[in-house]
Amino acid sequence: MAGRLAGKTAIVTGSSSGIGQSIAIRLASEGANIVVDYRNHPEGADATKQQIETVGAKAIVVHADVSKLADTQQLVDQAWQQFGGCDILVNNAGIERAADFWEVTEADYDAVLGINLKGAFFLTQAFVRRLRDAKRPGRIVNISSVHEDMAFPHFSTYCASKGAMRMLARNLAVELGPLGITVNNIAPGAIMTPINTSLLDDKPKLDALLKNIPLGRMGKPEEVAGLAAFLASDEAAYITGSTYVIDGGLMVNYHEQ
Fold first, then answer.
1. Can you give the CATH number for the domain in which 198 is found?
2. How distant, in Å, are the alpha carbons of 111, 147, 155 from that of 226?
């Protein structure tokens, strides 16, 4: 299959819906085989697989909770067993829990940091180990957030996880560069995904947000996917340690009400 990613294999975590699903389908349309990962929605993962096969690529579905090390290892092992290797890792799986800082529970902290940070950290480690042993280059694309930089009151756990992801990417860019492995973050702003359903259903809150976005609209998952496909490709071979903000201008215009 022709395309920028022909012959490549990609793991996309949290690819049963939203941004992850769009990225998985876009990478497939560019020629990559895809390991579709899901935690709670097998029907969504199956739908992703069907769309990947429709564009002519191959896909396998793996049930994995990235906050569990055995599950992250399984994702990498399945990629190598089924497709003979893995070239691209997209750390997309993420959750958020709203709470005043003084009300945050240990369970909430563990849930958010476990998926958003620990999951990305140890899945990347498993991915890198196999590439290092095989002396193969690779691409790591983390789906971070504008909140790796921008305050988001009442979401302290989410901001902590994304701020850490920013520094982790910069650090790994230096450490993994000699192995030919690049690491970059994509920082989406307000994107039309299931995680934002309550916002989309709250017209006053949505209108207030749109006033802060110079382009006057929310982003589409497909727009994030286009950027991920570029960073996963050889066109981005000399880019590492960077964060690409995709937010319609929100960050440069935003002020807390």
1. 3.40.50.720
2. 29, 21, 28
User: What span, in angstroms and rounded, lies between the C-alpha atoms of 76 and 85?
Assistant: 9
Residue 35 sits in which domain range? 9-245
The predicted-structure confidence for 127-151, as pLDDT tens digits, reads as follows 999 999 999 999 999 999 999 999 9
The predicted model gives 171-188 an average pLDDT of 98
Strand partners, 61: 36
Positions annotated as catalytic residues are 158
Decide if 149 contacts 187 (C-beta within 8 A).
yes
Q: Is position 1 within any domain? A: no
pTM exceeds 0.85: yes
Close Cβ partners of 91 (under 8 Å, ≥ 6 residues apart): 13, 119, 120, 123, 124, 140, 141, 142, 143
φ and ψ at residue 219, rounded to 5 degrees: -85, 165
Backbone angles phi, psi at 243, to 5 degrees: -115, 130
Within a domain: residue 113? yes
Domain membership of residue 193 (yes or no) is yes
